[in-house]
Amino acid sequence: MQKTLKKIKQLIPPVVLNFCLKNIGYIGLAPWEYMPEGFSYRNKSKGWDLESIVQLQLDKWPKYAERVKSTASLGFNHESADISGNTPFFHNLLVSFAYVLTLASLNKKEIRFLDWGGGIGHYGLLAEELLKPVNLDFNYYCYDFEVFEKTGKQINLKYNYFHDNDKYYDVKFDIIMASSSIWYEENWKNGIDKPCKYDTDFLYITRMIFISNTPSYVAIQRPKHIGYNTEYLFWIINKHEFIAYVTKKGFSLIREFEFGEATPIFKAPEQGTMQGFLFKKA
Predict the structure, then answer these.
(1) Is the pTM of this model over 0.90?
(2) Which of 156, 174, 243, 172 is nearest to 208 (CA)?
């Protein structure tokens, strides 16, 4: 499926392709769609906490690990069926992560990294590999649903997986990252509150769609193209409201990141861009 989509993108001019993606909901079920009823739609949504999703990630893990430990570029998506692929979007995303990780580890002999909503630990393996040249003591913590925790512990015995919100409050983290995770919370502000309860120097919230001119709204993803037989609701957040709220939590914004245009959302009030924001404890 993904190879077919890639060929289609190569044949169709970007303007035409973007128009088709924005209006695909008129001829079938849109992969990304505006949900004016918000999270009241959730009773029809299967969500993320599924054994089938974990199994798919586990099946791809060997190829992912091989790619991470190679000298290849960082332009790949761990959720893709083709781990050997390269795209500017994912290269931008992962190199930006490498910059953030490097900044958080400056002048340190050890680093504690909390991956909020980290699945089975993809960013843990990537971070450990990126930090090898500087010979740091690397400590990785991963918070996600229990089904991800159990699987993660099977493949990464030295990592710290957990699913209870009240664990590891006594740990001082160098960086907490939430990549495509807090926007799935029914109340996105509560999604920010949870990782902010931990003590950290840096907070990196990334790989989310942000808008600038309209209020935050809810949409739905139907990610069948990557093999996930599910759908989940998520927030498209107003950038200014987001920055103001995180600032009130005691952080200051030190860098914004742009990753490119997001997948068009059918009937959305405003289309957004994929971005990331790095905050430092004030």
Answers:
(1) no
(2) 243
